[in-house]
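Tutorial sheet, problem 5. The four components below are modelled jointly, 266 residues in total.
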Amino acid sequence: MESEREALLQFSSQFCEELSNDDEGLKREILAHAGNRWSLGVLHILGTNGPLRYGELRRYLTGVTQRMLTRTLRHLERDGLISRYDYEEKLRRVVYAITDMGKEMLLRMLPLWSWIITSANYFRETRAKYDSD
Amino acid sequence: MESEREALLQFSSQFCEELSNDDEGLKREILAHAGNRWSLGVLHILGTNGPLRYGELRRYLTGVTQRMLTRTLRHLERDGLISRYDYEEKLRRVVYAITDMGKEMLLRMLPLWSWIITSANYFRETRAKYDSD
DNA sequence: CAGTATCCTTGCGGATACTG
DNA sequence: CAGTATCCGCAAGGATACTG
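Model answer (structure tokens):
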């Protein structure tokens, strides 16, 4: 039904009116994890493969530099979406895991993510047409 | 049920394995609309208030500069999420509207957005604790 | 092994002034 | 009215080298 979509859009008004209040910045920052280069990948890998060490994560995320992996992990940890545990051993060993909050966020991002993937051809064509004008 | 969440996470694997293919960049760019300063606001306003002129949009988005509004509109138009119509009149008049694709994206972003809003307090506290260490 | 430190380029977001 | 043009600071993302 078309009206069910309209209803959802209307329902959303209450949230988007909050776009203009003080901590609108905080919300956008959390949301920005969705657009960041490695955040979604880290969340997903930790969500499906369980806790992993730094080096293991690196191998999953082909192409990530140490700098960017560390940055991403710190950001996600700061927002409580992953946890970090440093076994203080001589041979260093640090393990990262997704938190319950991280799983909640991941579950709410996946529908959007999968929709974008299935729509990739549409976007490619639309952009090509736009750029050629 | 806890297992239903696990199932969803597993289900998602097929998508995130695509993280490493060629147009992964395109997908993240589309997703980046979620984290951009004005994109979600524009989509929402056009989605609930119908087609609007440039100046009207400006009044809805308190604080937006002309430069950023124009940039945001161009990006959204390039991805086919909004449409632009220029009535070629002497008194200039340009109207923007959300497209069907834009509505689809908006509908898939709102659950994530609303979840973040209701979790804002959690994030504030988590960050405060992280920053104090 | 799990990071830092340094340098670089690109794009975001904003301020201000100007225009068909 | 609906934009451009120009300048700025800042953060993302990456390359490369180094370290406890």
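Marking note: The beta strands of chain B are 52-53, 82-87, 93-98. Full credit if you identified this.
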